[in-house]
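Changelog note: in this version the structure field was regenerated for every chain. One regenerated record is shown below for reference.
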Amino acid sequence: MTAAELPPLVVGFDLDMTLLDTRPVIGAVYHLLAAETGTHIDVDTVVGRLGPPLADELANWFPADQVPAVVDRYREIYHEHIGAQQVLPGVVDSLAAVRAQHGSAVVITAKHPDGARRHLDAAGFEVAELVGSAWADGKSAALVERSATVYVGDHTADMAAGRAAGVYSVGVTTGGCTAEELTAAGADVVLPDLTGFPAVLDDVLRERRLAALRARLAELGSLVVAFSGGADSAFLLAEAVRVLGTENVVAATAISPSLPAAELAAAREFAAGLGVRHLTPGTHEMRREGYRANAGDRCYFCKAELLDTVGPLAAELGIEHVATGTNADDAVAGFRPGIRAAFERGAVTPLRDAGLTKSQIRYASRELGLATWDKPAAACLSSRIAYGIQISPAKLRRVERAETTLRAALVGAGIPVQNLRVRDLGEDGARVEVDADLVAAVRDRSDLLAELTDFDTVTVDPRGFRSGAMNELLPNPEVFR
């Protein structure tokens, strides 16, 4: 399987004692059954070994011919007690972590689908799918059918199912099984609860995705990296050099009025440190009417100019592929017209193909010792100018001058700004965005803001820095995707 063919991320979760402590519910129902039927049931024993199918448990207390009727009665009264369930530690963050990795959470449980659905609805959990009445081989089959990557459970049977399915198995000791039992049954890792699961998931996926990236790069053989100098393209360039060698990799940084001078200097230094050939072709976005007009699709014309310039250079060098630093987060972002332009021109996206997220790229960059691992986002200068205001070299220089001036003033005042944008709103008005925790400090320094003499009015955005904040002003950004 190539990196580009990697299946979507699917993470399976058991329900009882993995996501929810359902012992109060189950215990209450067994007490009622015992009272109704006059049958002795050791409820403490029952709730201490949750996991197997209901009929199997009831067979320990009732004659075989009575079990079907008791199962029906159990389910009839079960839903009346679901409110007594408890969400186990770390569950909400774990489900959120799956979504953040652009994955789907699937609950695979031995519980009857109706009861399981009631539990999920009562807890407010949003999952992609529920598979009920699945036990042992049924769980394994469900994992295989969905090409799951990870399964999480509290029972030894969960770990056995995960091992049989060939998925990474995470055990939690919130149920009745010990860490030793779960490990012996096939758990790859055992946690006391799901609090630590987001970190485990990120570690597992990062390593698999890095392996997929390297496989993808090896497939490509040689490439020109469209190298902006940012964290993503810098990491891609470094990995390409590691996999393919400097003789098969070229960095290309486009020079135009929209590129801050400091970014070009940093890109040159980074490429030199890798020993890779670095091309700096000039691009001419300003010649494209769509770019100058600065409508919502401005980035389309910018990326088109870049690829139309770099593509022929690659061909001259005998290199078949041009790669961009598009990552998995970019691929699902709500507004990326530039991605469309690159796709139309045949650019490859190894980071996206491998499923690597921005945070994983930064983590891996730090592990490699890359200076760009924590580099703030640095979109082109045109992104600072409000849509509908025609772009010109003079406007770009004004924005760059304002940001350079303000950054120096803030640092001199002891305000450790990382992310900084000066947004040109037209009519000589500007809006400053800084890191959210520094908004108050910057807003209170009118003397520093007054140094932005190119603008008549300067305000500080109370929401702080947000990548792509100008997109919020578009009435219908989907038109430009």
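Spot check on this record: The longest helix spans residues 197-220. The chain has 21 helices and 15 strands.
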